[in-house]
Amino acid sequence: MGLLPAPVERLAEEFARFPGIGPKTAQRLAFHAASRVPPAVLDGLAAAITATAATVTPCPVCFFLSDEGQLCAVCRQPTRDRQLICVVEEPGDVLAIERTGEFRGLYHVLGAALSPLDGVGPNDLHCQELLDRVAAGGVKEVILATDSDLEGEATATYLLRRLEGLDVQVTRLAHGLPMGGELAYADERTVARAFSGRRQA
Amino acid sequence: MELRLLNFRSYPEAAVRLLPGANLLVGPNGAGKTSLLEGLSTLALTRAPRGGVTTDLVAWGSQEMGVSATVQAGGEEGREMVLELRWRFQPPSRRWVRTLRVDGNPQPVARYLGRLRVVSFWPEDLLIVKAGPEPRRRMLDVVLCQLFPAYAISLSRLRRALEQRNSVLRAVRDGAAKDQELEPWTGPLVEAAAAIMEAREGYLEEATPLAAAAALRIGEPTPLSLVYKPGIDDPEGGSWAERMTRALDRSRAEEVARAQTVVGPHRDDFEICLGGRAARQFASQGQQRTAVLALKAAEVAQHLSHGGEAPVLLLDDVLSELDLSHRAGLVQELAGGMGVEQSLVTATEDHGLGEVVRLSQVLEVRRGRVAPRGGG
To answer: In this structure, which CATH number among 3.30.2110.10, 3.40.50.1980, 1.20.1050.90, 3.20.20.70 belongs to the domain B121-308?
Structure first.
């Protein structure tokens, strides 16, 4: 205690706030920054953090990460199919779907999944904004791509009910067996889901 | 089998070699005999075996707890398999994180459960006939999670769905949420509840003749039966999902008023009957103990008929609690009536057990140290 220069202590404390980083890792990162990284690289890191804080805002349409109140990079692309909206929980989910190259529509990032236990109700998600986007017209299909855990499924059910009155097709991402996985080793729930979601061969 | 403990209860570190057949653990009270049995059943069930919070089993002040065992995968001739359960405290989230490994590879719980099976007999089980419904539900959950890993998934989804749904009920009661916010949680609740109730009903149906046969062997001529009492009030019949859905609809006013889901498997119970009458009210203390032994024998039989792997039988200090005739009955079952291949029995003295059952070894447990009697 108190052996380290205050900025190093402070840096370790700040690192420890991030998900997946415990106090030991945080301390190792702080030591590394203080003793192994050239000052110019640290300046670059500090500038990146400052710029993130100053300029990154949610996209006003889909709530994916964007710059200074502008439309995000996906919403700006003219080649996107604007009749399709894929609804996800977190910004990271957008990248996961983009990596597949399978989807050419737009997104809608809810910000989280419903979890009344943690005080997250429908008004804490970007639900109303989704309904407004659909009500504005021109959307043919909404794809619910929330997680397959209890909270993700409940969120999908909630959105399905709210979207029912609107003139739009609502679909849910299929759940099934992992690629390259053996049927015999999959758990029963996954196999059951894969069965109920089977399609024409 | 070798059982290894790390920061579990009073054991900072221990490794105990258990032989096939009957292993008797003797030692004074508080020596750490029970902790060894709890360690093995925690490893089999992935959670505290006797209810309560699993991380309460962690040795005081530790941030990590582990139990592992090298077991024979397919009986004695089969290949060896290493099962490992580890809990680690994560300071940033202030949560304990559990990992399960088989031969060093992390596995989801659905692919882990059932590889090591236990049937345990704790002193409090002697009261299971007379006790409230909670220990009887736990008894069903312990056996069904090991028989059907999907049951364990349904159980954890049920708990989560109830917690989430009860939060919404609280908000609805307080005027902070609308009725329609309940619906997303009702679907998963019904799905999990139906799977659990179907499994429990089926288990009790299958267990009845097995328990009755065991009771007869122990010397109880009055026929024993197990009657499922589902925690839903719905006389109309149909599938469990339909019954659960109707019961929820009917109880809406009450659940909002109490901010609690008042129907479902969390309210389940079953009645243990002798000659068609509730043993809880009408049976003598001796008959009630016979019923408990019969329930345990039925558990063993169910393991053998579903999937075949013989469970390890864990008897914690129950011999001293039984009168002579019940002790003889239990020992007979232990000696092969049940089909058990390995057992761990704790006692403060050996009760002459060695004269009726061939003991593979006697382990002396003193202040957290375990050593074979006669050895070093």
So the answer is: 1.20.1050.90
